[in-house]
Write a structure and sequence with these properties.
Blueprint: E1 6-7, E2 38-39, E3 49-50, E4 62-68, E5 72-80, E6 85-94, E7 97-103, E8 116-124, E9 127-135
Antiparallel strand pairs: 1-2, 3-4, 4-7, 5-6, 5-8, 8-9
Length: 137
């Protein structure tokens, strides 16, 4: 059986209860976008997926969940409705497992984004999926 993994990349602290993991202790993983931290919490996945962000609509933070079935290069990007890249949430290699990344509602320059619909795209070696989310101020 493969190991368990959870990755949270956040500017702010993320309570595990937000992810429905209150029974796993009071651990939190705090990291910057350049650093990653992992903790054995969620089981590996059989198929790559991109989950719904929570909450949706959101203001100003939301958590995006996804899972990858094998080690792969992974890219998680946020776009506006014009197709312009707003922020890179992750771009690197990850091992198989379930992940959650918090987006703080800011662009790559650290500015708060406007209210509206945003797209988030997960790309791996064999997977590409886009979903919508709504920022309301």
């Amino acid at each position: 059986m493969k190991g368990f993994a959870l990755l949270i990349i956040a500017i702010t602290l993320l309570p595990m209860s937000l992810l429905g993991l209150s029974g796993f202790g009071d651990s939190i993983i705090n990291s910057t976008l350049e650093e990653t931290a992992s903790k054995e919490l969620l089981p590996d996945v059989d198929a790559t997926f991109l989950g719904k962000n929570f909450p949706n609509p959101f203001n100003p933070n939301t958590v995006i969940t996804y899972g990858i079935s094998e080690e792969s290069s992974v890219s998680l990007l946020v776009f506006n409705m014009k197709g312009q890249k707003v922020r890179t949430l992750f771009d690197g290699t990850q091992v198989a497992g379930s992940y959650a990344i918090e987006w703080d509602g800011k662009d790559s320059q650290g500015r708060e984004v406007a209210s509206g619909i945003y797209l988030y795209r997960l790309t791996t070696r064999n997977f590409n999926k886009i979903k919508k989310m709504l920022m309301i101020k």
